[in-house]
Every structure is written in C-alpha cells, then in structure tokens.
C-alpha cells in the first residue's frame, strides 16, 4: 500500500510525539519518586525505636532526695555491782543491779542452788550452806541478764586458848628458823600452830578479823589451844594469853 509523503510524515510525527509523551511521563514519575525520597519523613511515636539507656535516663529522677536511715533502738543492758563473792554461812550480801535503755526497771532474781544461798526480790543474798550457786538478775519480760557466782564456806565455832610465838630459839627451841610442820615458811597474819587431831593441817581458821591457815604444830599445843605466829618475839609476847571464839571452816 502506498502512502503519500504527507501521510507518512504525519504518521511518523505522531509516533515520535507518542514516544516523547511516554518518555516525559516516565521522567515525571521518576522525578516525583525522587522528590518523595528527599522529603522529610514523619515518624509516629508508636514507630520510634526503643533505646533502653535513653529510657532509663528519661525515667530516672533528676535530683533524688536521700532518706535518712532510722537509728536502731539501743539494746537494754543490766550490770551487777558484784560478779563473784565468797560468803560464810549465815552471811548476807546486797546485790545492786544497774539497768539501762529499758522501759522497765523491774528485776527478777533467782538462785541456781537455794540450798547454798537464797536471794529475795530486793537482791539480798543469804548464805545457807557450803557450796557454789549462781545468782541471776533478769530484766522483766526479757532474756537480758547478769550473774554473780557466790561461794559459801561452812564452819563450826569453838572456844580456844590462843598464844603467840615466833621462829626464835626462845619460842621454837631446837626448831628455831625451821619450816613449819607443813613444810612452808611461817608468815605473820597467816600461820597458826594447832593440834592436828582437833584441827587438821591446811584448815582455814578465822580468829578475830583475820583468816589463818593451820600449818604448824607444837609440843605444847594440845586440845583447844592455838599458837599464832608473829614475825618478832616482841609481837609474840604482846599477844599474851587470850580465850577467843573462832570459826573453823569445814
């Protein structure tokens, strides 16, 4: 089929125009897409990525106020004026308790061995018999306590004749300067000579305000007679002859 140059030219021009329009359309689409990529993106709060450090810093208080720690209540204490004491039978001892940091001052007193010694609600201890006992003072309503160990010595009383002697030849004769019958060196305010059939050697004896130990014997010491040792002959003679009531601890 033959076409005139006029139509050929028109047809060719139309094809070119269509191609140009398609090219322009494609370029427009690409241009719009490029602009869309360059435009700032708006991200919603729900789409914000999670950052634990940033969240912790945001939630942490800026200036936390330190809380002052409450001071613990002081612990109650109790203390006795004596922690150990030696008594003789029938002696009395007043124990005093000092209580601190306690709302109550009431004390519960107790003796572990009432046969040896008793204690009343005022803390007065009465010695009963030979032995040892523990006196306990407890703050009422608690297990806080203090203790005193009491040793009771038993004794018998007797009347004896007492004289004085020393370690000189006038008093001790051939045994002057020698050791006692117990093998010890005699000492003033400590050594006495006894009849060991009445008072065994090693026994403690109370004469007046002094406590002596039966360490020596003598040819003239028979029955209820005691010789009290002195460091000098003058003191021994000054003792003279006395009749005294003594305590012999058993």
Describe this structure as you would to a colleague.
It contains 4 helices and 15 strands. The strands form 4 sheets. It has a 6-stranded mixed β-barrel with strand order 10-14-11-13-12-15. The chain has a 4-stranded mixed β-sheet with strand order 2-9-8-5, with no helix packed on it. The chain has helices spanning 5-38, 52-59, 169-172, 233-239; strands at residues 77-80, 84-88, 92-94, 97-100, 107-111, 117-119, 124-127, 131-139, 145-153, 155-165, 191-193, 204-207, 210-216, 225-229, 242-249. Among the domains are: 77-152, Immunoglobulin-like (Sandwich); 155-249, Beta Barrel (Barwin-like endoglucanases). Strand 6 and strand 7 (124-127) form a beta hairpin.
Which properties best describe this structure?
250 residues; alpha+beta; Immunoglobulin-like; four-stranded mixed beta sheet; 4 helices; 21% helix
In short:
The protein has 250 residues and is an alpha+beta fold.
Unreliable parts: 1-24
Distance between the termini: 163 Å
Number of strands: 15
Query: Main sheet, how many strands, which sense, barrel?
Result: 6 strands, mixed, barrel
Calculate the mean pLDDT score and round it: 83
**What helical percentage do the residues reach?**
10-25%
Please identify, by name, the CATH architecture of the domain at 155-249: Beta Barrel
| SS-based class | alpha+beta
Series of secondary-structure elements, N-terminal to C-terminal: HHEEEEEEEEEEHEEEEHE
What Rg, in angstroms, do the CA atoms define?
Answer: 56 Å
Strand order of the largest sheet: 10-14-11-13-12-15
CATH superfamily of the domain at 155-249: RlpA-like domain
């Amino acid at each position: 089929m033959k076409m005139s140059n006029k139509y050929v030219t028109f047809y060719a021009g139309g094809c070119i125009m269509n191609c140009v329009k398609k090219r322009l359309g494609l370029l427009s689409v690409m241009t719009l897409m490029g602009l869309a990529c360059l435009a700032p993106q708006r991200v919603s709060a729900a789409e914000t990525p999670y950052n634990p450090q940033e969240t912790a810093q945001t939630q942490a208080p800026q200036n936390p106020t330190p809380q002052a720690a409450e001071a613990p209540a002081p612990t109650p204490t109790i203390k006795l004026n004596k922690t150990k004491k030696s008594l003789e039978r029938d002696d009395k001892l007043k124990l005093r308790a000092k209580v601190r940091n306690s709302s109550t001052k009431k004390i519960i007193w107790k003796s572990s061995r009432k046969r040896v010694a008793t204690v009343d609600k005022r803390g007065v201890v009465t010695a009963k018999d030979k032995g040892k006992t523990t006196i306990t003072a407890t703050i009422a309503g608690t297990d806080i306590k203090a203790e005193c160990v009491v040793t009771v010595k038993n004794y018998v009383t007797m009347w004896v004749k007492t004289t004085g002697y020393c370690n000189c030849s006038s008093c001790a004769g051939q045994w002057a300067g020698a050791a006692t019958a117990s093998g010890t060196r005699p000492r003033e305010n400590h050594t006495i000579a006894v009849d060991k059939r009445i008072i065994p050697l090693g026994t403690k004896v109370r004469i007046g305000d002094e406590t002596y130990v039966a360490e020596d014997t003598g040819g003239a010491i028979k029955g209820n007679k005691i010789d009290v040792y002195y460091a000098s002959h003058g003191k021994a003679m000054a003792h003279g002859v006395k009749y005294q009531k003594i305590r012999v601890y058993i």
